[in-house]
Design brief:
Keywords: Signal. The protein has ten helices and eleven strands. The chain is of the alpha/beta class. It has a single domain, classed as TIM Barrel. Strands 1-2-4-5-7-9-10-11 form an eight-stranded parallel β-barrel, surrounded by four helices. Strands 6-8 form a two-stranded parallel sheet.
Length: about 350
């Protein structure tokens, strides 16, 4: 697809901002048909965790379909809502809208989680939740802490892979912060010169928790071997499908509600072969518009790379600082974002 100069410029802006973050981190210790329930609503076989895992009410399929249609926000192109099998019981989407705070505790440049104290983060996030709830009273809004647990780096490190894994104390801090406001947790992975297959299993003990979900960032997936920050990376449908399959196995083995998988995107090349991404009842995929800049650029990026290439659900990222860098730009309000088709169901603040 031919990219306009406007979109290309936006991509460069995001890259330059991301590059600034590298030196700030320190080491720590199958798409089907809508309305075909089939076997997709069945609960996984019982295991040792069932004694402590409360049973989930069955999926309200009529409400699910109605919420999907509402989320499409009047789109008449036929792209939205995306057709697929019903999710398993306990699915959060499209019943809730998630508003997340993003970052890494070691870096002020990577988001609010590293910029403010825990008490300030919690109060600020609660304030955003209220704004989003007021903007759309028909959709319950829930908070989330989105923590970058594997960060791309400007130096190769001992493994030569330009990535740094956060220690358990840092991830536990994110989980404990979320507990104080009954929030979800997203663990984000920037693989750099490593791979999803190597990094995600390292986080399995956290991903077994019912309230912990996953984010993956193609921007820092450096398949060509180049240093992170020098070019924008990429992931293919095969990468996303591997991750979805991994999460599906965890959900089945541990009798968990569906996991949410957030995939960041702001250019055409960041995600390839989107039509080959398979949907499964155990995983809900969010394609998150991750670009920053003037509001017109952000809307255009969403339209070109998220709206036109539908996968399942959509997200939208807002930057408290970077979205103000250009003349006459501002941080978009909930009401402005909710005019999009489809309406983003995952909102992330950096």
């Amino acid at each position: 697809m031919k990219k306009s100069a406007l979109i290309w410029t936006g991509a460069l802006f995001v890259l330059s901002a991301s590059t600034l973050s590298f030196s700030m981190c320190k080491p720590g210790v199958a798409k089907g048909q809508t309305g075909l329930p089939g076997d997709s609503g069945k609960i996984a076989a019982k295991n040792d965790t069932d004694a402590t895992r409360p049973s989930l009410p069955p999926l309200d399929t009529a409400l699910f379909l109605a919420k999907l249609q509402q989320n499409a926000n009047g789109d008449s192109s036929g792209k939205w809502p995306v057709k697929g099998a019903y999710p398993n019981a306990g699915a959060l989407l499209p019943f809730k809208r998630i508003v997340a705070y993003y970052g890494n505790f070691y870096s002020k440049k990577m988001g609010v989680l590293g910029e403010y104290s825990e008490d300030v983060v919690i109060e600020k996030l609660k304030g955003e939740i209220k704004k989003w709830q007021a903007a759309d009273t028909s959709m319950e809004v829930i908070p989330a802490i989105h923590y970058i647990a594997v960060t791309a780096q400007g130096s190769p490190g001992d493994a030569g892979k330009y990535r740094l894994r956060m220690g358990p104390a840092q991830i536990d801090k994110a989980i404990n912060m979320a507990k104080k406001m009954n929030a979800l947790v997203f663990i984000d992975v920037q693989v750099a010169l490593s791979t999803l297959e190597e990094e995600i299993p390292m986080l399995e003990k956290y991903l077994k928790m019912p309230n912990v979900h996953l984010g993956i960032d193609p921007e820092f997936s450096m398949k060509t071997g180049k240093k992170p920050g020098t070019v924008i990376g990429t992931m293919d449908a095969t990468d996303i499908n591997w991750t979805s399959n991994y999460l599906t196995k965890l959900v089945k083995a541990n009798n968990l509600p569906p996991k949410i998988l957030v995939v960041h995107r702001f250019t055409q090349g960041m995600v390839t072969n989107y039509k080959q991404i398979k949907l499964q009842p155990e995983v809900q995929i969010v394609m998150d518009m991750d670009g920053w800049g003037h509001q017109a650029r952000k809307f255009n990026t969403y339209k070109q790379f998220v709206y036109k290439e539908p996968v399942q659900f959509t997200g939208f990222k807002l930057f408290y600082k970077n979205d103000l860098r250009e003349a006459k730009s501002h941080v978009l309000t909930p009401a402005e974002v909710l005019k999009l088709k489809p309406q983003p169901i995952y909102i992330q603040y950096q």
